[in-house]
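Before the break, one more example. Copy the sequence into your notebook; we will annotate it together after we see the structure.
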Amino acid sequence: MSRDRIHWRGTLPLKSQRRSKYGAVATTVNGIRFASKREAVRYRELRLMERAGFITNLRWQVPFSLFGHRHRKGLHFNIVQIATYKADFVYTDMKTGESVVEDVKGVRTPVYKLKKRWFEAQEGRTIQEV
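Here is what the structure looks like once it is written out:
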């Protein structure tokens, strides 16, 4: 280690004072904490759509298991959970009757892109990005 290293003895900033990696500001609406202002605004829009009867069964932060397989000896393999994709919103569109998976995105990270492709291949449906 170098001798010119600075030794800092102050207190660490509070968690609420830290800035997120991509600049998102956590926001609380109706007692629900959202990771960004954009996500909170979308929640308000979806709640209005639900009250108007355009959508039903609005849920947020819905986890989906992403599976892979591990080979064993012979022709058999085990299916194992490798990762989890957490959708921002899931709801039912009353016009089509289909379940919609929605993600509010500011920055499409490489991990998100991978999980999106994996989810879409596994579930056979697309993620709508807002």
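The CA atoms of residues 32 and 40 lie 9 Å apart. Residues 21-129 form one domain. Try to locate both features in your own notes.
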